[in-house]
Amino acid sequence: MKTALVLEGGALRGLFSAGVMDAMMEEGILFDSAVGVSAGAAFGSNYVSRQPGRAIRYNKRFAKDWRYCSLRSWLKTGDLFGAQFAYHELPTRLDIFDCQAYDDNPMAFYVVCTDVETGEAVYRKCDKAGHEFFDWVRASASMPLVSRVVPLDGKKLLDGGVADSIPLRFIESEGYHRNVVVLTQPSGYRKKHNPFMPLMRLSLRKYPLMVKALDQRHLMYNEQLDYVAQQAATGSIFVIQPDAPLPIGHISHKPEEMQRVYDIGREKAKSLMPQLKNFLQENKTL
Predict the structure, then answer these.
(1) CA angle (97 as vertex; 95, 102 as ends), nearest 5
(2) Phi/psi of residue 17, each to 5°?
(3) Closest C-alpha among 159, 161, 163, 120 to residue 141
(4) CA dist list (Å): 156 to 100, 123, 131, 140, 208
């Protein structure tokens, strides 16, 4: 039975997931596939390139660099997270992403985006690293209001979490039925209606189906949480999530705050490691 790692987004809450993944990499845990949304795509790519520590390292290093993430970047370029700096200069020159290791890894990696013209999810299997791949990751992580629409493959794309925040059903449809799901919100969390919808409607008025998806996102997300709980009860998935709300917002310029969230993820994964290994070991006998 094929295994997959499912990674939701959450902007810098995703550093929890980075800590989880680094702990798993250090234990030599392998998956047949992974699917990442937004920060889950950005940080999850390091699982395929086998680079533990990279996500927390560059986030701390550039936490206060305006080119990486800042109001100045938004006003100057249209992107809160600088498109050229964060997704091209950084991985190719400043903290190099190992494209060769990524390409050589047989593990499949899917990135989830949202098509702003249809409001529907776009799933991209990324077999090769490089600038086009970095743009798919950028599109997946491009939050409405603070990011430009990303044109790729004849589509206009933004944040994958709008259309499919927790792509468990997608990865199951691809034939993966023994899956580890990493969430960035604690058990019992329920998403509320987006208070910024008036601004969303204004900024995305050319894309009514995207506005509709944003307006209904909380309903979609909460239904997905119910599905995750249902699948966990059957024993077909293993869920890793924080015990309490993570002490960080969507963005942060404080390296110590980033480290704290990353460490929470590492410790959570380490505390669950025996159960996780048993879950994955059971897969070999099914």
Answers:
(1) 165
(2) -65, -35
(3) 159
(4) 29, 13, 17, 11, 13
Tell me how far apart the alpha carbons of residues 55 and 139 are, in angstroms, rounded to a whole number.
Answer: 18
Q: How far apart are CA 266 and CA 148, in angstroms?
A: 33
Could you tell me which residues come within 8 angstroms of residue 224 by beta carbon, excluding any fewer than 6 positions away?
164, 165, 166, 168, 169
Chain segment 212-231, per-residue pLDDT in tens: 999 999 999 999 999 999 99
Question: Angle CA(276)–CA(14)–CA(205) in degrees, nearest 5?
Answer: 135
Residue ranges of the chain with per-residue pLDDT less than 70: 283-286
Q: Which of 52, 54, 40 is nearest to 5 (CA)?
A: 40
Distance CA 245, CA 238 (A): 20
CB 91 within 8 A of CB 134: yes
Phi, then psi, of 89 in degrees rounded to 5? -65, -45
Task: Mention every residue, 6+ apart, whose C-beta is less than 8 A from residue 16.
Answer: 10, 182, 184, 242, 246, 261, 262, 264, 265, 268
Cβ neighbours around 48 below 10 Å, total: 24
**Would you state the pLDDT for residue 64?**
97
Calculate the dihedral angle through the C-alpha atoms of 22, 46, 43, 113, rounding to the nearest 10 degrees. Answer: -140
Q: What are the beta bridge partners of residue 158?
A: 114
